[in-house]
Amino acid sequence: MDKTFWITQEAINPNECIEKVVRNEAGAVNTFIGIVREFTKGKRTLFLEYQAYVPMAEKKLAQIGDEIQDKWGNADVAIVHRIGRLDITDIAVVIAVSTPHRADAFDASRYAIERIKEIVPIWKKEHWEDGTKWIGDQKENTSYDKKIPSEEEMRR
What we know:
With 156 residues, the chain is α+β, with helices and mostly antiparallel strands. The protein has 4 helices and 9 strands.
């Protein structure tokens, strides 16, 4: 994989991200791995379904990488997010950040996951024992009870 920021339907191998950021100047590589959990707010999740507007999502992931470079300077970043059906314990997202010092790597990694939830057009549908629901944006501020927005609606 030549990309540093990408969306995939395949199972994620965290080492692919890590290998993209390891370098001689880095004294730290922080890796965040987000997985599908079984219980959310007391409800048992059977599986999740992620969808994305892939071209825009990849551009927004790259934007987050640029923001990290602006804030922390000497940082390399790689991010991959999976779409499609994900079962319990499947990896949904991997973020790898390398910096000369560990504090910056930790801070930049946390920044990346929060920004993903804020700006990247990825939607999650929860499948519970008693029904389903499009959660909407990943911060759960916007709900899409019926459907996710179309590509045309997102461009407006």
